[in-house]
Amino acid sequence: MLWFGQPGPGGWNRKCLCPFPLPRGQHPQPSYGFPQVNEVVFSPGESHCATCSEDGSVRVWALASMELVIQFQVLNQSCLCLAWSPQCCGRPEQQRLAAGYGDGSLRIFSVSRTAMELKMHPHPVALTAVTFSTDGQTVLSGDRDGLVAVSHSRTGMTFRVLSDHQGAPISTICVTRKETQGHLPPSLAAFCPWDGALLMYVGPGVDKEVIIYDLSQKQVVEKIPLPFFAMSLSLSPGTRLLAIGFAECMLRLVDCATGTAQDFAGHNNAVHLCRFTPSARLLFTAACNEILVWEISGR
Description:
Blueprint: E1 2-8, E2 11-17, E3 37-42, E4 48-53, E5 57-62, E6 67-73, E7 79-84, E8 96-101, E9 106-110, E10 115-120, E11 127-132, E12 138-143, E13 148-152, E14 158-162, E15 188-192, E16 195-202, E17 209-214, E18 219-225, E19 230-235, E20 241-246, E21 250-255, E22 260-265, E23 273-276, E24 282-287, E25 290-295
Antiparallel strand pairs: 1-2, 3-4, 4-5, 5-6, 7-8, 8-9, 9-10, 11-12, 12-13, 13-14, 15-16, 16-17, 17-18, 19-20, 20-21, 21-22, 23-24, 24-25
């Protein structure tokens, strides 16, 4: 069980998260009769926490009420380590848990869908540590023999094993965000198909924006603000539409006639390529090794 405390008059007020039902009128007390709790992790917004224990359970608790809201159970296995996915790609609703077990297996649970997404077996012995990469796309897991496996959190494929610590259990794994100094976003420019005198440009600068330059007037005539620096750019040849891809796994479609914009989520990696078809009826976007095809309607 877990005791949670908060400051109160004259000391601390405690609240207990008890994962097992107790007889009416009996108050939970610390006891060795319950399976040991091995890890506690918190959601990015601190609205929930998750625990794992020797009985193979993963439990999600609402911190405001201290109530159990979700439980994942694996029979005949001990859950030894746990990690909560970071906020990434602007989609906080896609929260996941990575849980490591005594048989060397690793499971990915979807908190929002209350379901197991993936089971992989990257280790031959018990897992002792697990964490997500800062973008949530990679899971790093360590085992009792000192091996660290680097796996894709969507496909379950292990693409690297580190043996530098072999012979000693991995006790913890920490990750940090990759430094981007010297890696600037690309500079992209394209002529407007609907007005040959206009040139659109995105690139590194003080502000995140699309700059529209009029070649005849030799001056900037409009700036369109963006939420992030652009990774890709495409202009529709048949309509006044502008497609912009971002490293944050998002696609934005801008209607230059009305000035309105709409964002779309669908990729799991940086949208590094956008291309309208010559008919302007379809838009192809690419992120890493996946391609999505979007139908442009109402035109």
